[in-house]
C-alpha cells in the first residue's frame, strides 16, 4: 500500500507540475520554439501520470475509475475523431497533428482525455487548490515576462543573446507581447482563463495581505492581456467576467453588499489600466483611452500591427484581418460541402483548404501564406471532421454548460434554504460554503472565455489543456458521485508492474526521440540556409533515422540530396551525382507516398526536380508533371500556375508558357512577377508593344518605379 500511496502522491504532484511548466516551457533549439516543446512536455508528463494511474490499479487489483456525467459526450466526440482520422485525406497528419502546429491531432486529443480521467479518478478537492496555486505562480512569471516585453525588455533575449532588450525577436514584441506562449492571441487566451479564477481568490481572501496579493496578481494578468493587443482574448475575458459576476451576485443576492466594494475596486483598476494603455479595440479607445483626448491620431498606435515573421494577419491582427478571415471561412465551408459527414480528416485543413481556396484570396496581401487553420475552431471542426465531428464537439460543450447551469440553480436553492432555515439575518449564512461554490463559477467562466476566443482563432496546447481539464477540476470540487467499475483481481502484480515499467520507458523514449528528430531537422534547416549542404544532409538524415515515417523530414532530405547531386555534377563527379539523384527522387517518393495530399511536399518535389533538371534535362518534364499534380491539389494558386508557365518556357513550349502565365494573371490580376515574365517573353519575341502594355499595368501598382519606367522607355526606342 505504500507504493500505492506514493503513486497517488506522484499523480497529485505531476498535475501541478504540468500546469506550471507547460505555459513556460519553450526552447530555441527546435523548428517551432513554443508549441512543439509544450506538446512534447504534455506527452511526457501524460505518460508518467497514466503509468502511475495504471500502477495503482495493478497494486489495488481493481479498476480505478471515477464516473462523471461527461463520459457519454466525451465518448461520442472521441469516436467521431477516430472515424475522421481513419477516413482522413492524410492519416499521418490526423494522428500526429500538422507539423509546426502539433496540437489538435488525434494523439494530442487522446492525451488530454487521459489527463481528464486520470484527474477525476485520482485527485481530491485539496489537489485542485494546490494545482491552482501552481498555475498562479506560472501565470505571475508569464505576466511579468510580458509586461517587461512591452517596455522593451525580454528575458528571452537575455537568455538567447545576453541582451536584456527585444532585439532577438523579428516580431514587434513591444507592440504585442507574447512572453513564453509564442503568439499574442495565445497569451491573451491563456490569461483570460486565469483572471476569473484569480478574482475568486481575491474576493474570498481572509487576510488583507492575501487580498492585496491577489489584487496585484489579477491586475498584472489584466495589464499583460492588454499588452497582447488581442481582440479575441479581450472579448473572451469580458464575456467571462460578465458571466462570473452575474453568477456570483445572483446565486446569493443577500451577499451582494459584501462583494460590491471589491467589485468596484477591481473594475476601477481595470478601467484605469485601459485609460492609460488603451484596449485592443479602437471603438473603445476613442472614448476612454487618454491619448485620444490629447492626440486623436494616437489611436492608430493601438491598432494591432502585423509584425513580420510572426504568422498570418489572422494570428497577429491587422487592418486586413477581417477580410482575410471571411475568405478563409468561406473556404472552410467549401471544404465542408465536399466532406459533409466526417470532414477531410482531423487537422488536415492545410491540405483541404487549398483544394477549395476561394480565388479572391489571391487579391489580399497574404495571398501566398499557408493557412493550416480556419481561424475559427468551430469552422475548423466542421471542415476537418464534418457534421459528426462538430456536432459531437458542440454536444460536449452544450452538455457541460447544461450541467453547470443545473449545478448553479441547485446552489442558489441551497443558499435560499439555508437562509430560511437559519431564521437569522443574511450575514449569518455560513460564508465558507458559499465562498467555496464561487470557485467552480470562476473555473466555468474561464472555460467560457475559451469558447469566445476560439471563435476567432484556435486552441493551442495550454488552451486545450484547460479546455479538457477545467471540467475535471469542477467535477472534483463538486464531488460528483463515483461508482468504481467491477473488475477481476490480478493474481500477481509483480509481473504486470515490470511490464508497465518497460512500456512506460519505451513510450518516454519515443517522446524523447520525437524531440531529438525535430532538433536534427531544425539544425539541418539552419545549415541549409548557411549553404552547408553536406552538413545539412547529415543532420536531416539523423532526423529521418529517428522518425523514418515523417514526410516533412523525408521531403527536406530529398531537397538536401538534390542540392548535393547538383554540386557533384558541377564537380564533374557523374557517379556521385547519379547516386544522389536516385536518392533525392527516392526520398521524395517516400514523402509523397506517406502524405500524398500535402501541397508543401509537392512544392518541394517541384524544387527537387527543377534542381536536378539543371544537369539532367529529363527532370524538367518531371518537374512539369509534379507541378500539374500540385495544381490539382491547389487549383487557384497563381504561383503554381506561374511556375508551370516558366517550366514550359524552359522546355521550349512557348505557346503553352504564354497561355499558362496568362492563366496565372487571370487568377491574380496584380501578379507582378507573372506580368513581368510575360513582358520578357514578348520582348524576346520582338513584340515590344505587348511588353510595354504589361509593364504599364505593373506601373499602376508601383507608381513612378524607376526600373519599370526605364524599361518602358528602352522598349519605346
Automatic annotation (TrEMBL):
<dbReference type="Pfam" id="PF14559">
    <property type="entry name" value="TPR_19"/>
</dbReference>
<dbReference type="Pfam" id="PF04932">
    <property type="entry name" value="Wzy_C"/>
</dbReference>
<dbReference type="InterPro" id="IPR007016">
    <property type="entry name" value="O-antigen_ligase-rel_domated"/>
</dbReference>
<feature type="transmembrane region" description="Helical">
    <location>
        <begin position="39"/>
        <end position="58"/>
    </location>
</feature>
<keyword id="KW-0472">Membrane</keyword>
<feature type="domain" description="O-antigen ligase-related">
    <location>
        <begin position="222"/>
        <end position="393"/>
    </location>
</feature>
<feature type="transmembrane region" description="Helical">
    <location>
        <begin position="234"/>
        <end position="252"/>
    </location>
</feature>
<feature type="transmembrane region" description="Helical">
    <location>
        <begin position="7"/>
        <end position="27"/>
    </location>
</feature>
<feature type="transmembrane region" description="Helical">
    <location>
        <begin position="212"/>
        <end position="228"/>
    </location>
</feature>
<feature type="transmembrane region" description="Helical">
    <location>
        <begin position="70"/>
        <end position="89"/>
    </location>
</feature>
<keyword id="KW-0812">Transmembrane</keyword>
<feature type="repeat" description="TPR">
    <location>
        <begin position="638"/>
        <end position="671"/>
    </location>
</feature>
<feature type="transmembrane region" description="Helical">
    <location>
        <begin position="456"/>
        <end position="477"/>
    </location>
</feature>
<dbReference type="InterPro" id="IPR011990">
    <property type="entry name" value="TPR-like_helical_dom_sf"/>
</dbReference>
<feature type="transmembrane region" description="Helical">
    <location>
        <begin position="186"/>
        <end position="205"/>
    </location>
</feature>
<feature type="transmembrane region" description="Helical">
    <location>
        <begin position="101"/>
        <end position="119"/>
    </location>
</feature>
<keyword id="KW-1133">Transmembrane helix</keyword>
<dbReference type="InterPro" id="IPR019734">
    <property type="entry name" value="TPR_rpt"/>
</dbReference>
<feature type="repeat" description="TPR">
    <location>
        <begin position="672"/>
        <end position="705"/>
    </location>
</feature>
<dbReference type="GO" id="GO:0016020">
    <property type="term" value="C:membrane"/>
</dbReference>
<feature type="repeat" description="TPR">
    <location>
        <begin position="517"/>
        <end position="550"/>
    </location>
</feature>
<keyword id="KW-0802">TPR repeat</keyword>
<dbReference type="InterPro" id="IPR051533">
    <property type="entry name" value="WaaL-like"/>
</dbReference>
<feature type="transmembrane region" description="Helical">
    <location>
        <begin position="378"/>
        <end position="402"/>
    </location>
</feature>
<protein>
    <recommendedName>
        <fullName>O-antigen ligase-related domain-containing protein</fullName>
    </recommendedName>
</protein>
<feature type="transmembrane region" description="Helical">
    <location>
        <begin position="131"/>
        <end position="148"/>
    </location>
</feature>
<feature type="transmembrane region" description="Helical">
    <location>
        <begin position="497"/>
        <end position="515"/>
    </location>
</feature>
<feature type="transmembrane region" description="Helical">
    <location>
        <begin position="259"/>
        <end position="281"/>
    </location>
</feature>
